[in-house]
Amino acid sequence: MHNTRTIFLREIRSFFNSPMAYIFLVTFAIFNGYFFTSTFFLYNQSDLRSLFSVVPMVYLIFVPAISMGLIAREKNIGTMETIATLPLKTYEFVLGKYLAAISLILLGLVATIIHLFTLMKFGSKIDYGALLTGYIGLAFVGSMYASIGTFASSITDNQVVAFIIGVFIVLVFFLMGFFLPLVPSSFAGIIQYLSVDYHYSNISRGVIDTRNLVYFFSVIGFFLTMTVQSLEVRKWK
Amino acid sequence: MIKVSDLSKNYGDVEAVKSINFEIKDGEVVGFLGENGAGKTTALKMITGYLVPTSGMVEVNDLNISDHAFEIQSQIGYLPELNPLYPEMTVYEYLEFIANLRKISGKRFRDALSSVVDKCGLQGVVHKQISSCSKGYKQRIGLAGSMIHDPKILILDEPVTGLDPNQIVEIRQLIKSLGREKLVLMSSHILQEIQATVDRIMIIHQGEIVANGTNDELMSNFRGNTLLNLEVKNATDSSLKDLPVAVPNMNVVNVEERTGRHIIQIEYGQEVDPREDLFNYAVRSGWAILKMTPTTTDLEDIFRKLTTEDKVNA
What we know:
The structure holds two protein chains of two kinds. Chain A is mainly α.
């Protein structure tokens, strides 16, 4: 855990020492703010539904952008070799990197709470439980996308390539639900279960089922394991 | 102590390192010399556990790397090729980061820091951002990072590449002084560098170690014939023709005429010295000797010979 913490802190520091974190936080807030407020007063409803539907789409671009540099950059500047020859387990390294990415994502999410104040100012009979589960859902989706982005970053030393691969895999999970009517009914169950939207909408409706939690944790676990593997396999090449 | 037995590494079909063997004792400073792509870096990467060998064994202080990579990595300080660093960190942050990953913190870190800052001459840049340091300083920062845990073994891959001559001398002196208390294995493709820095040289060529010994050992093992350049005036064709017969133990390699002067290239073995006979013959034949310069084989010739043989044959 000590090593994970060291990697985590270095990464966070590197986010904030470069324009990366600030650009992310500001543009994330602008995007979400724009899409939220543009429909908020039209709907005339006391909830953050428009926010909860726009953030997963904004994530599609932003999360791979945050995570693209995590490992690809270390490979590119060569520090991966320094890291790999230190007495440090690969999973400690991957976990530190991943936690840094989700910390930044959660920070961006916390910034959207400003819209809650708008809601409290204009709305009435606000369902705080639904707001809470909505945010929990967003946190899960962000964490899942970050694990995909971390994996994409581990298979190349080029950040742009990592970004494109990340967006692609994330899109597959995101769009799966929309193709549901097109697939044969025998596959429909599987496709539905794999679709991120299905689990996210369950959680944000306030139904936090173990099936949904198992889904998120297993996808995250899968991609982080793949990340560790892709870094380990290099030694044998 | 580093012991390497039958170590090989293949990248697909390419055999980068072919069954090399060597042993380095504590306190030795050894240099890997070879052209780019000879297999130096690959060999070092296997010793540091960055790559897993295709076959063969690496033992460091009697521990086998395939079973004890962590223990070995704790005892080794490694400076990878091209000296990778995080440009956005300050020198202090970088060294603290590396130290933390080596479980050094608090008072122990402060002691280790002042020790490497002292050894590597980093006073004055400790709180500077790495990206704003000069190349020579970056190299020292990399070195400092690789020895923050005071390892008994230092492995340096091309530690002076890209430095200017003054910086090279500084880093060379630093490595030499480190060699008094540590086992140092460094690589370079620059012969003069290796010759000036290390106790023992291993020449690696196309993945194989083709020579292993001290400078003097290599010289005596591989010393070829001496070439003598003799420049004379007033030489007649007939006296030139008689030269090989009149002076024993030598061969005339080449005779070149330049406006009344002749440049004669003569080759002779290690055990003989026909220079006196040559002089006497020249006097007898009425030549005026303008120049007589022997060129003995040096390490550079040995290196060139060992590392170009295959190309010549091919």
